[in-house]
Amino acid sequence: VTTLIDDPIARVLGELHERLRHDYRGEVSASIPTLANADHKLFGLAVCSPDGFVSEAGDVDVEFSVQSISKAFTYALALSDRGREAVHEHVGAEPSGEAFSAISLEEETGRPDNPMINAGALVTCALVGGEDAREKFARIRSLMEAAAGRTLGFDETVYEEEQAASDRNRALAHFMRSAGSLTDEVDPTMEVYLRQCSVLVTTRDLAIMGATLARGGINPVTGDRVFSGEVARHVLTVMATCGMYDYSGEWLLTVGTPAKSGVSGGLITASPGQFGMGLFSPKLDARGNSVRGVAASQDLAERFQLHALTLP
Ligand code: GLN
Fold first, then answer.
1. What contacts 16, CB < 8 A, 6 or more positions away?
2. Reaction(s) catalyzed by this protein (predicted)?
């Protein structure tokens, strides 16, 4: 990873960090003990350019569980393995307008609305190729590692806590199995999904992963192709409409980039052909999005004209 010595983007990130670090709105997630005990003062911002330069400010090296941000990459893998049509027989591409843990299944087909909410992510996990849960998870982890350009850790404690707190997700999985949209058994599906949530990333990783999406599947730091340009476009599209849960519409209005948030306070954005951004701050708003992450993104999108629908 290359950083510039006199870097104007890093200067902006530093100013933003200084201004927003006094914003204490929101609450850390109470879903599992590790997240409930997270240090709410942590705040990291990183931007990765299309040629792989990383600018950063704050706690960019602190590791946290990737949580729902993994959903974008599992979706990329399912699309690569099965193709868009086969995936869309089982999971839709419509914003649900509901919370990430909602039971939002289409009435006629039993499909969950989209792959960025829990129900849809469980279905996507089942669609990933692999003999068993171990192999499927190994493939998802490898894909995230290729997008980040390094080996990623795994938090065994988070995984155990997620398993102990998985009643609702498990219920969703059973429900979708009876509706026919979940093609695999419940237990292995839960294992894949909760393991992917427990992979450890840093804010810098998220910026590079975002830039990989923005570059149409090529990691700009390593130069490796991680998935096809077509897959990147599908994933970015669904991130744009569904990535911020029931804030996705307002996000598109005020920031305007494809994005995905997670319950640990991570946030990834990808401006097609331009930057990837990683943001991390554990306190969440009522929809489950990082308060400082959203505020910083709004500022940066305006400053650098990142809105995907910016007119010439
Ligand atoms: N592991 C969390 C869950 O399934 C992830 C949700 C999220 O990040 N929004 O509830």
1. 45, 57, 296, 299, 300
2. L-glutamine + H2O = L-glutamate + NH4(+)
CA of 158 to the centre of ligand 1 (A): 11
What does each C-alpha distance from 250 to 35, 170, 245, 256 come to in angstroms? 26, 30, 10, 9
Q: Which of 263, 281, 283, 290 is flagged as catalytic?
A: 263
The 10 Å Cβ neighbour count of residue 96 is: 22
> Is 64 close to ligand 1, i.e. is its CB under 6 Å away?
no
Tens digit of each residue's pLDDT (9 = 90 or more) over 22-33: 999 999 999 999
pLDDT tens digit string along 235-255? 999 999 999 989 999 999 999
User: 136: burial class by Cβ within 10 Å (0-12, 13-18, 19+)?
Assistant: buried
Q: Say if residues 155 and 200 touch (Cβ distance below 8 Å).
A: yes
pLDDT tens per residue, range 209-222: 999 999 999 999 99
Q: Which domains does the chain have, with CATH numbers?
A: 1-271+294-307 (3.40.710.10)
The pLDDT of residue 312 is above 80: no
Whether residue 288 has its Cβ less than 6 Å from ligand 1: yes
Query: Does the beta carbon of 67 sit less than 6 angstroms from any atom of ligand 1?
Result: yes
Q: Could you identify the atom of ligand 1 that is nearest to the CA of residue 245?
A: 9
